[in-house]
Structure formats: structure tokens, C-alpha cells
């Protein structure tokens, strides 16, 4: 039973990964970032495929094996345990892949220099439209796009 709880916890933690522009990893906090001004040319919905680290398959195999081995007598429990482990591994792998899959957006921007860039990030709280002024924030090799803040000049 403890193994089943541990496996479920591992699967839950694997699903917590995100590329959202609204979530900053602890390693990126309190770091200086590079900011570039740009304009949105277009956006389109995309899907960031889920990860398959093997944790889901192993966890599912363990859970399926334990559940299957408790069925029937001594001989049947071994056979059903093996089948349960295989089925659990397949289901666990698929669950991990689907659990880490994200709806995202590909944003095509034009920099002030005229260069164009495409950035894919998970959908955040902001909806970007063509013509929106944005900033591209780069921290530790990771890039995110967000609406540019309104600049008010004092006379």
C-alpha cells in the first residue's frame, strides 16, 4: 500500500511541470533578465507534448503488479501479477504523457530591428493579439512573452 501511495505521489509531481509565462521557477527568481521590445505579428494554438520519463510506466507497473498478485491462488497470482504489471506500465506511461501535456501558444513577434522570432509558451493569463506591444524576457536561457507595460511620461 505504501508503494502505491509513493507511486501516485511521483505521478502527481511529474504533472506539475509547466511552461507557463505566469510561473517562474525558483532558480530564475532574483536574477537579472534581458528584456527586448517587440510587436506581436500572429499567434496560434499549439500543444506541448507530454514527457515520458519512465516514472509513470514504472509506477504503473508496480501498482499493477501488486494489484494483480492479490488475485486468485498462488499460481494464478504470479501470472495475473505479471499481466497487471505490464498493463499498469502501459497505463502509467500514457497517464504521465497526458498529465504533462500542455495547451500552448506559438507567438510570432517582430523586434524593433525588423527581425522576427517565434516563441512557444503555455497559455497564460494574458491573451496576445496581433499588433500588441510585448516584451520578451530572457532569464537563464528561458524565454517568455508578456504584454509591454504602459509607459507614461511626465512632462
From TrEMBL:
Entry keywords, A to Z: Signal
InterPro entries linked to this entry: Gly_zipper_2TM_dom (IPR008816)
Keyword Disulfide bond: no
Family annotation (PROSITE patterns): PROKAR_LIPOPROTEIN (PS51257)
Membrane-crossing residue ranges in chain numbering: none
Domain called Glycine zipper 2TM: residue spans: 55-95
Name this polypeptide is given: Glycine zipper 2TM domain-containing protein
The species this protein was found in: Rubrivivax gelatinosus (strain NBRC 100245 / IL144)
